[in-house]
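ingest -> fold -> write
write: protein_1
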Amino acid sequence: MARGAGLDADRIVKACLAIADEEGIGQVTMRRLSRDLDVTPMAIYHHVANKDELFDLVLDESLRAVEPVDPAGDPFDELMRWGRAFHRLLVDHPSLAQEMASRRLEGPVAVGAAGRILDLLARAGTPDDRADELLVALFSCILGTAQYRISRNAESARRGGRALPEDFADGRAGMRDRLSDTSITDQRFAAILTVLIRGYLPAAH
């Protein structure tokens, strides 16, 4: 077992996500992580002090996969691109969505991304209070729809592809079919995000 030469945050994050995606976040331990990375547990402790710090690191570093907005770009286009990429990251890694729902994102990557969004909105003429509201609304929308999408996918898999029980809404014409088609697709998420962003940006945008 190696002592940790060449071990960096990127390797730790990738190994942690691989375990969480395959077996669930509960299976991520320092011992398991060190075994998968072929390093001693102490090598990991050089980067994080405990499991809480490990998860904080994973959440923050994972956001590097989402290219930040360009404050000089078109506000609507930049927010749409960023929002869709962030949503896709969470859908592809359900463990991230699970942990983000219970932890504050205060790492340098998250703070930097938020700062660029606020700079973009300031340039668009969005008042500070509205910009702050939109930032919170964006995160809530992206995380919430990702969690809903993940849970619907899991429920559909348990029911063999059926979103609802066979006897749901019997006797109400069309109701079952309509409620069965409430999944969040990429296209539907884009429509939701469009309404949210358009509602906050100044009319000129």
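write: protein_2
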Amino acid sequence: MSTQDLIADIDAAADPAVAEVLARYFQLQPGGYGHGDQMIGVKLSTIRGILKPYLRADLPLPELEQALTSPVHEHRLAILCLLADRASRSLKPRTANPHELTAIYELYSRSTAYINNWDLVDCSAPQVVGGYLIDKPRDPLYTLIRSKELWERRIALVATQYLIGQGQTADTYKLAAEVLDDPEDLVHKASGWMLREAGKRVSEDELRAFLDRYATRMPRTMLRYAIERLDPVSRKQYLAR
């Protein structure tokens, strides 16, 4: 069982009709945020099924890093899902492996040019980046959030999902404040999503304090995502500001 076998299995599941749908959904058309990518038509649910026998195969990281440079979106998605699973296992007490977690994080950090759509970011950033940084300085998040690249800024935000799960929300709020004037809707969505998660899973009072300070400056999409779990009266009040 090899990385080449995994790629071959993904290719065997390709469906041109599905590829057309996915190409529209992920905006691969000229001018779209995914322009230049290639879809062969394999849904995420199918990819996860294909991955099952590979999850414990310990495929060599250099092979996975090379596969992550593939021009095919689904190849990269499969590799990132696999890396996220291995990072998650490295974080668990029974299977803790700090050396592997570091190696995966470093591989990921070298490869952000290929992590270039929201599904690729969202399936991997929490476990790989957030998980690695859970007990370390958060400077890499602030380097990413100030990047000119949309997807690196989204990586910074979505990575905090893992931190939120551990009760750590400070970076979520600091990063959200950094992107109040960001031009990209996909950054607004990620920021609002993480704010909502911080309020739901850790402290609604903290979320309200952030909203009280910044609601009038927040892009509408970010605000709507952030307040989604609040009561109807509060949502109406924040939207009216």
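write: annotation protein_2
The mean pLDDT is 96.
The chain has two domains: 1-135, 137-241.
pipeline exit 0
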